[in-house]
């Protein structure tokens, strides 16, 4: 058996910049990769969490991401998602590479989100286009929140960022980490609200008034050009009535029909797009009550390939809402880009 290449987290990050990942995703979608051909993710119980297996295939490479999800780990100072990516030759089905999986996920997820945001911004009608320094509001203060800020700088290098979290210490740690990184030290990032340390998010309908910062969160939601949701909440984290008329909202933090980050009010107000219609119908709680079976059949939302190919119409005066749960093809595209970057002559 030929040697199997190993890619550490540091090597994955070195070879898979956000610009590289976004370009790889766009190229795959333009060249005919359909999110609707992706198979369902496979979940199984694990001690204190669950296993997640995500197989995917293409003409050149195939692979499977094998992860563990430990919801209590962040409270222990550990990563919530850990695992490996196994890459195979599609010709021989021989394993050719193993990649550290949590770093791959930390890059892939925001790259997918920013691919969607990039095209929603480009498809904005006259009167709804973003300026050169958009106001970006991020909900969440974990790994994905930090990486979404870094990814957003690819297209919006002059953006300013606000961060909303339930725990002030985590928001402060996120801002400190971004300030200590030479690549992001110049980026204006501020805490929004006081982080009320309650079960309800400050600024949500349930959390409104729960802390001195709740009002400022509402104001930030109303003023934001782009809102990125990276939480693990099972209930809406903001009041959809407050989102700006032409804002872009991207919800990427949850999976499962019983978990959601936005309310039906936002979904009803917005032009909606998803990663894939099949995965959205199976797993996306943000759409579970707004889209019944009849709606999925008669007027399903656009998917990510539609966005990249320009087959999507935004309406002046309506927010654009993108929501995803993570799909296996995305990891394969990104893992293939990492492997090809090292082995390319």
From TrEMBL:
It comes from the Bacteria. This is Ornithine cyclodeaminase family protein. Coiled coil: none annotated. Gene3D superfamilies: NAD(P)-binding Rossmann-like Domain, ornithine cyclodeaminase, domain 1. InterPro entries: NAD(P)-bd_dom_sf (IPR036291), ODC_Mu_crystall (IPR003462), ODC_N (IPR023401).
């Amino acid at each position: 058996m030929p040697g199997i290449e190993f890619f550490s987290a540091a090597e994955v990050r070195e070879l898979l910049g956000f610009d590289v990942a976004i370009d790889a995703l766009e190229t795959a979608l333009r060249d005919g990769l359909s999110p609707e051909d992706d198979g369902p993710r496979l979940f199984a119980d694990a001690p204190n969490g669950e296993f997640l297996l995500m197989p995917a295939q293409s003409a050149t490479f195939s692979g499977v991401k094998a992860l563990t999800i430990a919801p209590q780990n962040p409270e222990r100072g550990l990563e919530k998602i850990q695992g490996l990516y196994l890459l195979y030759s599609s010709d021989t089905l021989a394993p050719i590479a193993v990649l550290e999986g949590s770093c791959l996920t930390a890059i892939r997820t925001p790259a997918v989100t920013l691919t969607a945001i990039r095209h929603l911004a480009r498809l904005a009608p006259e009167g709804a286009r973003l300026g050169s320094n958009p106001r970006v509001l991020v909900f969440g203060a974990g790994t994905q929140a930090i990486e979404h800020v870094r990814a957003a700088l690819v297209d919006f290098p002059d953006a300013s960022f606000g961060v909303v979290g339930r725990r002030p210490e985590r928001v402060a740690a996120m801002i400190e980490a971004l300030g200590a990184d030479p690549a992001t030290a110049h980026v204006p990032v501020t805490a929004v609200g006081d982080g009320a340390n309650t079960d309800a998010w400050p600024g949500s309908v349930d959390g409104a008034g729960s802390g001195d910062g709740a009002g400022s969160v509402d104001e930030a939601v109303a003023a934001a050009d782009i809102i990125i949701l990276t939480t693990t909440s099972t209930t809406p984290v903001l009041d959809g009535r407050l989102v700006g008329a032409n804002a872009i909202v991207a919800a990427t933090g949850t999976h499962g029909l019983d978990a959601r980050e936005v309310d039906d009010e936002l979904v009803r107000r917005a032009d909606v797009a998803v990663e894939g219609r099949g995965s959205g119908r199976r797993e996306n709680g943000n759409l579970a009550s707004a889209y019944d079976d009849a709606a999925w059949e008669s007027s399903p939302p656009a998917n990510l390939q539609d966005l990249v190919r320009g087959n999507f119409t935004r309406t002046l005066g309506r927010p654009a809402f993108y929501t995803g749960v993570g799909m296996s093809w995305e990891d394969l595209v990104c893992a293939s880009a990492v492997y090809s970057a090292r082995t390319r002559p």
